């Protein structure tokens, strides 16, 4: 059985800091997977850089107005895939983007966006997704400014935008000494970040009970981040709203003793953690060294606003 649409599997061999590619039996190289790709007429494309990814997608979009685009990688890989798609000249209107059928596959250390949907790499499940109708999903847009630039930058995210402790964890876990720890690196990174974090002071706005200080602010499209932490238990990716989770400042000991519960399903029962829903948020940070985490990728600058772009991509 072959899809009526042209289909491509784009893989990122550097997902999970290269461990995906270094594995003895890389998923897309397995004989059963190769056979599945051939059966469904899916062409394999291996990209070696973000520039290569952009060039590859530009070429595909010149050939096809619609297609099945499977992307294998972790949250960072899916982040760059979504940003590349949202910035493509051929996809500048929503109708054109919705004609593209995007199929993310979990292939990194965290894969938290895929965890939201309990996605599997079982070939039977992938076949069902490939021939499904698909559903439109929301995309987040962050307007921010780097201290090295004098103009605003627009960056997109598919799963979460956060600052405070989560952004510091993201920075720490990108170092080589965390590479071999798997998902455990996020928990250990959080313990390390708690020792030296600086609380955030945010201007008061609708949905926030006071103006800080905060230990963490997470604007979530999906339910999970940080390697399985259910940070937004009520999140939906197609409701046109973000789930805002903001964490009050407290001692490092306070949060260190509650961290295991945050990885469970008891978030709403933990004191000093508050949840609300928003379509747009304004979060000007007050120090140029503040870090912003978008889908596990770290940026540095002043964040101006976060906006929910409703139903921008069709996901299968």
Description:
The chain is globular. It has helices spanning 19-22, 31-39, 50-63, 75-87, 94-99, 112-116, 123-130, 165-173, 184-196, 252-262, and strands spanning 7-11, 42-46, 68-73, 101-106, 135-145, 153-157, 160-164, 214-220, 224-225, 229-230, 242-248, 273-278, 280-282, 291-294, 297-300, 302-315. The protein has 2 domains: 7-132, Rossmann fold, CATH 3.40.50; 139-315, Tumour Suppressor Smad4 (Sandwich). 41% of the residues are buried. α3 (50-63) crosses α4 (75-87), α8 (165-173) crosses α9 and α9 (184-196) packs antiparallel against α10. Strands 1, 2, 3, 4, 5, 6, 13 and 16 form an 8-stranded mixed sheet that branches. It has a 6-stranded antiparallel sheet with strand order 12-11-8-7-14-15. It has a two-stranded antiparallel ribbon with strand order 9-10. A hairpin with a 2-residue loop joins β14 and β15 (297-300). The chain is α+β, with helices and mostly antiparallel strands and 316 residues long. The model has no long low-confidence stretch (mean pLDDT 83). Helix content is 29%, strand content 29%. It has 10 helices and 16 strands.
Question: Quick gist of this model?
Answer:
With 316 residues, the protein is an alpha+beta fold.
How much helicity do the residues have? Answer: 25-40%
Decide which structural class fits the backbone.
alpha+beta
The strand count comes to 16
Instruction: Round the mean pLDDT to the nearest integer and report it.
Output: 83
Q: Please indicate the percent range of residues in DSSP E strands (runs of 2 or more).
A: 25-35%
CATH third-tier fold name of the largest domain: Tumour Suppressor Smad4
Element-level helix/strand string: EHHEHEHHEHHEEEHHEEEEHEEEEE
Low-confidence runs? none
Rg estimate, integer Å:
19 Å
How many structural domains are formed by the residues?
A: 2
Largest sheet: 8 strands, mixed
Q: What's the overall geometry?
A: globular
CATH architecture of the largest domain: Sandwich
- Rounded to the nearest angstrom, the distance between the terminal CA atoms is 17 Å
The CATH C-level class name of the largest domain: Mainly Beta
């Amino acid at each position: 059985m072959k899809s009526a649409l042209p289909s491509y599997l784009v893989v990122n061999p550097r997902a999970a800091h290269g461990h995906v590619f270094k594995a003895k039996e890389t998923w897309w190289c397995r004989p059963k997977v190769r056979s599945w790709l051939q059966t469904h007429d899916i062409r394999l494309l291996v990209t070696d850089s973000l520039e290569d990814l952009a060039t590859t997608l530009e070429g595909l979009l010149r050939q096809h107005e619609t297609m099945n685009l499977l992307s294998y990688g972790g949250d960072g890989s899916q982040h760059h895939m979504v940003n590349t798609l949202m910035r493509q000249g051929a996809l500048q209107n929503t109708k054109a983007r919705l004609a593209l059928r995007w199929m993310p596959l979990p292939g990194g250390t965290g894969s938290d966006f895929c965890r939201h949907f309990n996605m599997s790499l079982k070939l039977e499940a992938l076949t069902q997704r490939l021939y499904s109708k698909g559903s439109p999903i929301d995309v987040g847009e962050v307007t921010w400014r780097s201290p090295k630039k004098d103009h605003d930058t627009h960056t997109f995210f598919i799963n979460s935008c956060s600052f405070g402790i989560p952004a510091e964890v993201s920075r720490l876990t990108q170092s080589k000494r965390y590479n071999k720890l798997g998902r455990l690196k996020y928990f250990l990174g959080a313990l390390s970040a708690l020792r030296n974090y600086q609380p955030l002071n945010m201007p008061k706005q609708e949905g926030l009970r006071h103006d800080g200080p905060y230990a963490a602010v997470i604007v979530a499209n999906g339910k999970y981040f940080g390697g399985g932490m259910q940070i937004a238990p009520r999140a939906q990716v197609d409701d046109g709203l973000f789930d805002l989770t903001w964490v009050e400042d407290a001692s490092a000991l306070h949060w260190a003793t509650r961290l295991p519960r945050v990885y469970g399903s008891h978030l709403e029962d933990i004191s000093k953690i508050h949840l609300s829903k928003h379509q747009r948020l304004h979060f000007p940070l007050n120090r140029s060294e503040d870090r912003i985490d978008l889908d596990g990728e770290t940026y540095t600058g002043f964040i101006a606003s976060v906006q929910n772009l409703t139903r921008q991509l069709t996901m299968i």
